[in-house]
What does this fold into?
Amino acid sequence: MHLEKEIKFRLKDPEAVRRMLQGMGADFQGGGFEENLVFDTPDRSLFASGTLLRLRRWHGATLTLKKRP
It folds into this structure.
């Protein structure tokens, strides 16, 4: 089974991070907007069980299901 961990950070100085990445040889590939559509049953049973069913759209589409371990 594939396990995924996603960590997000709030940056005080995004430009400093950009310069650091460029200094390491990274190349900006472009930006965009990621749309996330979350689905549930009418009684919200997925949410109640700690489950997230999401359609993520950006350069195609990915359907994800996240559950508590």
User: Anything to note?
Assistant: Strands lie at 35-39, 52-57, 61-66. The mean pLDDT is 90. The first helix runs from residue 14 to 23. The first strand starts at residue 35 and ends at 39.
